[in-house]
Write a structure and sequence with these properties.
By secondary structure, this protein is an alpha/beta fold. The chain has 3 domains: 6-137, Rossmann fold (3-Layer(aba) Sandwich); 142-389, tm_1862 like domain (pyruvate-formate lyase- activating enzyme); 396-450, no CATH class. It is 31% helix and 20% strand. The chain has helices at 15-30, 56-70, 81-85, 87-91, 108-116, 174-178, 186-198, 230-237, 258-265, 283-289, 295-308, 327-339, 367-390, and strands spanning 6-11, 34-35, 44-49, 75-80, 98-100, 133-135, 148-149, 156-160, 162-163, 182-183, 203-207, 245-248, 273-279, 313-320, 344-349, 396-401, 412-417, 422-426, 435-439, 442-443, 449-450. The longest helix is centred in the last third of the chain and has 24 residues, at 367-390.
């Protein structure tokens, strides 16, 4: 009996991509493929791409070359956001055999199998012409929602609850790469959460392109369209037994209403951790970006969260150097971020993306200026995060410690508090993949808390 074909996956980009890669891997395993590591010279490589930065093309080509160096005879398939945006260009890259768009990627095995038999018939290297096969649909035809979650970490799973976006911000390619906003039903999502709980996972991170837009469906004949929303979803998930924590990966400030904030504040399982994309602290720039809020609404949401949960952690996405961002507008952003009680920043340098409104705007900011502004905001982020940590010295918080694979000896075990403080303690196998209270005594040289572990009895409530 011949051994099964082997496949390795490489993922670029966001948590949503990682959850989808796991789903693709499971689908190939069900089709008879054996998943292996890249260095094991698999028969098939699958690259799941991202389109967020200007380096998408370079990154794609670099990994294809790397795959060829590992195994010159391997079959190479490319999927993901960049594959939907530039399918023909990717198919022309030497070594790429198959490119699948957003509608086709979840049928990966069905597309790979017929092509594998022809692998030996075409040149792998050399100067001859090469054109892989590109299979894709116009983005307006992308209507399926495929639930996804990663299953290679016993401690934490990213569960995709929503896909696509209807916002069409001026700088963003996501609606062009993923299509309109759509999601599953509450019942189906809860069923996935229960299945994840049964596998021993302790934390589920809810992820999506526009997570708070949950409830929309583009599926023909949907019976839940307009009847379900994100608040209803998290209310149902809060009742799922076997999961210690749910965490909301990101939610638009205009969708983070009082009902959601209040549910998290009173929740049995939802972590007091919010990630609210801001992008700019200038109302002028927010309008140019076509964002659906202003700084007043954003500040109101931040203060509401801190009023209900003073210990909550709030993260912020910010973009520097979008067209028209003058020095004055950047300083306005810097001042705004210092004026509100947020705790860390994810800072991105604006890059031109084809087919977006922003790329056609005047007043482009020089790249050197963009990078300098990014540097300044990252310095600010370090200060905000340090201040957040220092406010918690001496407090006791529940920590979910990571589950190691046991392959390597370790002197420490690490985890996160409910409000996203990193904690490191001397290695103790008994605490791995469990939630225990830790007194946060001091911050070590790596910026992590250390402190004694307390006794935790499941009948006791976690710290509020």
């Amino acid at each position: 009996m011949s051994s099964p074909r082997t496949v390795a996956f490489h993922t670029l980009g966001c948590k949503l991509n990682f959850s989808e890669t796991s789903t693709l891997a499971r689908s190939l395993e069900e089709a008879g493929y054996a998943k292996v590591r890249e260095e094991e010279r698999p028969d098939v490589f699958v690259l799941n791409t991202c389109s967020v930065t200007e380096n998408a093309d370079k990154e794609c080509r670099r990994h294809v070359r790397r795959f060829q160096a590992i195994n010159p005879e391997a079959f190479i398939a490319v999927v993901g956001c960049y594959a939907q945006l530039k399918p023909q260009e990717i198919a022309a890259i030497p070594g790429v055999d198959l490119v699948l768009g957003a509608n086709e990627k979840f049928d990966l095995a069905a597309h790979i199998d017929p092509l594998l038999s022809r692998m030996s018939a075409r040149p792998r290297t050399g100067t001859g012409p090469h054109q892989g096969r590109a299979v894709f649909s116009p983005i307006k035809e992308v209507k399926r929602f495929i639930p996804s979650y990663n299953a290679n970490d016993r401690t934490r799973t990213f569960l995709k609850v929503q896909d696509g976006c209807d916002y069409f911000c001026s700088f963003c390619t996501i609606p062009l790469a993923r299509g309109r906003s759509r999601s599953s039903t509450i019942a189906e999502t809860v069923a996935h959460a229960r299945a994840i709980a049964a596998s021993g996972v302790q934390e589920i991170v809810l992820t999506g392109v526009n997570t708070g837009d949950f409830g929309k469906s583009t599926s023909p004949g949907s019976t839940t369209m307009g009847k379900e929303d994100f608040l209803g979803l998290i209310h149902a998930l809060d009742e799922v037994e076997g999961i210690a924590r749910f965490r909301i990966s990101s939610i638009e400030p205009n969708l983070c209403h009082d009902g959601i904030i209040d549910l998290v504040a009173n929740s049995k399982r939802f972590a007091p951790h919010f990630h609210l994309p801001l992008q700019s602290g200038s109302d002028v720039i927010l309008e140019r970006m076509r964002r659906r809020y202003d700084t007043a609404l954003y500040a109101d949401r931040v203060y509401r969260i801190k009023e209900r949960m003073p210990h909550a952690c709030i993260g912020v996405d910010v973009i520097t150097g979008t067209p028209g961002e003058t020095e004055e507008e950047f300083l306005r952003t810097h001042a705004f971020l210092r004026s509100i009680p947020v705790d860390y920043l994810h800072v991105f340098t604006y890059s031109e993306r084809a087919n977006t409104t922003a790329v056609r705007m005047d007043e482009a900011v020089p790249m050197a200026v963009r990078r300098e502004r990014t540097k300044q905001l990252r310095i600010l982020s370090s200060k905000l995060q340090r201040a957040f940590y220092e406010r918690h010295v001496g407090s006791t918080r529940p920590v979910l410690f990571e589950h190691g694979d046991g392959a390597l000896p370790s002197s420490t075990v690490e985890g996160y508090t409910d409000n996203y403080l990193r904690v490191s303690i001397p290695f103790d196998a008994m605490v791995m993949n469990t939630v225990v209270p830790v007194t946060l005594e001091r911050i070590n040289g790596e910026g992590q808390f250390t402190g004694p572990v307390g006794a935790f009895r499941p009948s006791e409530p976690l710290i509020a």
